[in-house]
Amino acid sequence: MTMADAVVAQSPPSPGRRLAAPLAASAIVTSAAVYTALANPYQEGFFPSCMWLSLTGHWCPGCGGLRAVHELAHGDVGAALALNPVAVLVVLPLGIALLVAWLRAGWQGRSGPRIPMWVAIALPVVFGAFWIARNIPALEPFLAP
């Protein structure tokens, strides 16, 4: 190893290198949101149908999520909440917060954000409870997309 290799190995990554991954992830998420806003998820052909719903006839926790994002992009919060309240109230805010924290950490030269253990445990519990609740016949009028 030469002296130049040792200096390069010990120097912290440049801001551009630290921000590359969070910026790429943000660009992908933004592109997907723009596509979902412009395409009509109510029309066949733009998006695949839910495989779980097709196989079992029961709603999954994500059913209605694309249409909810479409409605949010068009400013209809009520329709988005009616289609998938967990996507609107949990998934989207947490996803945006995680991207912002990742960008901030990259900008400040720190490692990416850490997800607390309680969040890693609570999210699957919330999704599982929502999955069960939206398929209970008495709750379907309120939770089914």
Q: Helicity range of the residues?
A: 55-70%
Decide which structural class fits the backbone: mainly alpha
- Give the C-alpha Rg: 20 Å
Give the helices and strands as they follow along the chain.
HHHHHHHH
Determine the mean pLDDT: 88
Assembly state: single chain
What composes the largest sheet?
none
Strand content: under 5%
How many beta strands in the DSSP annotation?
0
First-residue to last-residue Cα separation: 60 Å
List the total number of helices. Answer: 8
Low-confidence stretches: none
Gross morphology is: elongated
Question: What key attributes describe this structure?
Answer:
68% helix, 145 residues, mainly alpha
Model description:
This protein has 145 residues and is mainly α. 68% of the residues lie in helices and 0% in strands. The protein has 8 helices and no strands. It has helices spanning 3-10, 15-38, 51-56, 65-73, 77-83, 85-108, 117-133, 140-143. The model has no long low-confidence stretch (mean pLDDT 88).
